[in-house]
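Lab notes, practical 5.
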Amino acid sequence: MKSFAVLIALSLSLGAASAHASPELAAKSKCMTCHDVAKKKMGPTFTDISAKYKGQPGAEAMLADSMLKGVKGKWGKIPMPPQKIPPADAQALSKWILTL
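Output from the prediction step:
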């Protein structure tokens, strides 16, 4: 039972670490090629994305799905192609974006 509690504590701390590492994860996942936290590039800023979807039910899952499947027409004429990232990374990035 004690080892089970240790495993739970470890997994919670790892989850928190990945949430704090999201700017680095965004860079590693090449999101920063088209997006930035506050400066408009080819795509919308992460801050603008957060403002548009924060507080909406299902926003986190929808953003992750958009990353994995691609998106057309939500932010103008330039589509975002599907990103080749693990679903867990898309989920972590979605969580991070919605905190901005």
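Observations recorded by the TA: Helices lie at 2-20, 22-28, 46-53, 59-69, 87-98. Residues 43 and 77 are 10 Å apart (CA to CA).
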